[in-house]
Amino acid sequence: PYSDQNKKLSIPTIISHVVKYIPELQKSVEKLRRRKQEIISRASRNGDTTNLLGDSLVYPAISVTGLDKNEVMVQISIISKATMAPLSEILKVLEKEGLQLINASTFTTQDDKTFYTLHLQAKDYVTIMGECLCELLTKTMKEQRKLR
């Protein structure tokens, strides 16, 4: 943000500029966060999550973490009732992939957000592919939505 890029500035001058610039950046970031929250809030109130933010808001966020060579943790965050899939359907898909449930927990908030945490173990030694599992579960959620 300097007018003359070729001019050498002293270290105290640079620090002074940085100290002034950081609060400006912080204000910009905070303004963008508020704007994002307003958009998400408006979208969830209207029930129209696809037009504003695309699939990222409608379909669940799924993460797969390998715990060791044959154990995995799957976390699914669902923020729309439209994409809610029964836990039994999710488990069927995972069992078809050779995974067995060790432990599960679910949590639903007052505004109907649902969180699943699944601890799974491979029945036989198999390479657990996190990305493939995420895609498979997302596909299952989309299919469940079409059935409604």
TrEMBL record:
Which superkingdom does the taxonomy of this entry point to?
A: Eukaryota
Q: Write down the InterPro entries for this protein, in alphabetical order.
A: MASH1/Ascl1a-like
List the GO cellular component terms: RNA polymerase II transcription regulator complex
Q: Name one GO molecular function term.
A: RNA polymerase II transcription regulatory region sequence-specific DNA binding
| Alphabetized PANTHER family for the sequence | ACHAETE-SCUTE TRANSCRIPTION FACTOR-RELATED, TRANSCRIPTION FACTOR ORG2-RELATED
What is the designated name of this protein? Transcription factor bHLH100
Q: Which UniProt keywords apply?
A: DNA-binding, Nucleus
